[in-house]
Amino acid sequence: MLQTAFGFEPQQSLQLDAMCNDKVDHTIMGVLLLHFAKLFGGVINFGGALLPPLSVVMEQDMRLWEEGNWEDVESYFSEMVEGISGKAVSIKYEVGNGRTWAYHVADAAFLKAWLEHPNFHMIK
């Protein structure tokens, strides 16, 4: 999948984690990851789905997390990132009970633009 999307299959990884959740923490992590992606010519595995703000109905009583599939929110993600430069790819996987979800992998150009997006966040 990554070979097709980005033209190479990553052979190494570097993981950054943050155990704090202020806006500045997300920004610092994003800037560091952008630096490393440019330095090493790599991609960013967000380690989860970059979710847009979703309706209360979708999140009500954990319905989204317990019953939802990636297909339920994929169009919201696509709408959120429409027009953002670079490339972000949804990698789907099965979470059990026939449900699917996704995580996102993106190039440095996407992360650079994502840092300026009003819904910017990192998955920490």
Give your account of this protein's structure.
This protein has 124 residues and is an alpha+beta fold. The chain has one domain. Helices cover 41% and strands 15% of the residues. It contains six helices and three strands. A three-stranded antiparallel beta sheet has the order 1-3-2. β2 (88-96) and β3 form a beta hairpin. The mean pLDDT is 91.
Number of E-type strands = 3
Distance between the termini: 23 Å
Q: Assign an overall shape.
A: globular
The radius of gyration is 15 Å
Which class of secondary structure composition applies to the elements?
A: alpha+beta
Top keywords for this entry?
alpha+beta, 124 residues
Set down the secondary structure blueprint:
Layout (H helix, E strand, L loop, with lengths): L1 H5 L16 H18 L3 E2 L10 H4 L3 H5 L2 H12 L6 E9 L2 E8 L1 H7 L10
Antiparallel strand pairs: 1-3, 2-3
Gist of the model:
The protein has helices spanning 2-6, 23-40, 56-59, 63-67, 70-81, 108-114; strands at 44-45, 88-96, 99-106.
